[in-house]
Write a structure and sequence with these properties.
By secondary structure, the protein is of the alpha+beta class. The protein folds into 3 domains: about 5-125 and about 190-205, Zn peptidases (Aminopeptidase, 3-Layer(aba) Sandwich), CATH 3.40.630.10; about 130-180, no CATH class; about 210-340, Immunoglobulin-like, CATH 2.60.40. It contains 7 helices and 15 strands. The strands form 4 sheets. A 5-stranded antiparallel β-sheet has the order 10-12-8-7-15, with no helix packed on it. It has a 4-stranded mixed β-sheet with strand order 1-4-2-3, sandwiched between helices. Helix 2 (about 70-90) links the parallel strand 2 and strand 3. Helix 2 packs antiparallel against helix 6 (about 190-205).
Length: about 350
């Protein structure tokens, strides 16, 4: 049966063995768990994690314990994505781990979400409810009938007598230990395909920053006003609410690089393209060419930013996000109304 559980050995809410069976001596004491954690921590651009387990037919998301409180913005995204997954994989349920299943401590996806700020799910592969797909709970009689009518001898070993050195003649045989925990071989292609499709959906909804509208205007004192929109057309924000709350990872950042004869005088986030209004500039702004966006760009969201620039050389705007990627564009200092970004070569217009 084993005496340890790798999915209870991660450092998020780890608890000792007398509280959490299988936790072992200390977090990441198991080499497989340590290797996994070290890889994830070394790659802050990882924006999605799915941990495949068996069995149960579930798409699980946190919290793993009742005393953990996740931000509502994150829970809405988790619920939306898990519900979509349960539709993609029939007879799977979208469930909250502690509330709908049981409390866990030190599990992998709590670690990836709570310590690394990654949108994470558990796929509990296969469910006996798919045996006859009747929509009703599968009984023991159903399981036996499924084995006899559809699996033949694949999961059953006929009983036979064996001489045991201590107990004498014993009967050995019966149902194999994987009989109900994994999909039958002939059903595994569909099982794998549907779970893979949910994983790809998850990957496709990871944050992806893009340029939105751009406006350049000439203002008083010879200053240029550059207002730019950054979009995230994906469901997962560039910074999760939990990560903001606990300051996990780097904030997003917008940088305006200039030439020697041009400089950024001031900058801030704004709420509209209305010129010369809405800027909140701190008195001690020492690096106006960099805007820290600690809120990130939300689910299917946008953010507006503004730079006041002195000079006439083109500037380079660069938006940097741990999870959402890095984008860059060159902006000539010439007046424009709000215009959409220019498509890159090969992109649809």
């Amino acid at each position: 049966e084993g005496g340890y559980d790798p999915n209870r050995n991660f450092p998020s809410d780890w608890q000792p063995e007398y509280i959490q069976y299988g936790a072992t001596d200390y977090p990441l004491s198991l080499p497989e768990c340590r290797a996994t954690a070290e890889f994830i921590m070394a790659h802050p651009n990882i924006a999605g994690v799915q941990s495949y387990h068996n069995t149960g037919g579930m798409v699980l998301y946190g919290p793993g314990a009742s005393y953990q409180s996740y931000p509502g913005s994150d829970l809405r995204v988790m619920e939306e994505m898990a519900t979509k997954g349960s539709k993609m994989i029939p007879f799977y349920d979208a469930l909250v781990s502690w509330e709908d299943l049981y409390t866990t401590h030190g599990d992998e996806t709590s670690f990836t979400y709570e310590q690394e700020g990654i949108m994470s799910f558990v796929n509990e592969l296969w469910t006996t409810d798919k045996m006859f797909a009747s929509g009703e709970l599968t009984s023991r009689e159903d399981t036996i009938a499924f084995r006899d009518m559809l699996q033949f001898e694949d999961v059953y070993v006929p009983y036979r007598e064996v001489e045991h050195p201590t107990y004498g003649t014993v009967l050995v045989g019966g149902t194999k230990n994987h009989a109900n925990r994994v999909a039958p071989l002939w059903a595994q292609e569909e099982e794998c395909h549907r779970n893979f499709a949910f994983t790809m959906y998850h990957a496709d909804e990871m944050p992806l920053v893009e340029w939105g509208m751009l406006q350049v205007r000439r203002g008083p004192a010879g200053l240029w006003e550059i207002t730019v929109e950054v979009e995230n057309p994906k469901v997962i924000p560039t910074i999760l609410g939990w990560a903001r709350r606990h300051r996990i990872g780097h904030p997003d950042e917008l940088v305006c690089d200039t030439g020697d004869s041009t400089r950024v005088v001031a900058s801030s986030g704004v709420n509209s393209f209305t010129p010369w209004s809405g800027m909140s500039i701190p008195d001690d702004q020492h690096r106006p060419h960099r805007i820290r966006n600690e809120q990130g760009v939300g689910s299917n969201g946008t953010r507006l930013f503004r730079f006041l620039v002195e000079g006439d050389e083109p500037v380079t705007l660069r938006y940097i996000s741990d999870k959402g990627g890095t984008i860059e564009q060159i902006v000539p200092l010439q007046e424009t109304d709000p215009i959409p970004p220019t498509p890159a070569p090969g992109e649809d217009t």
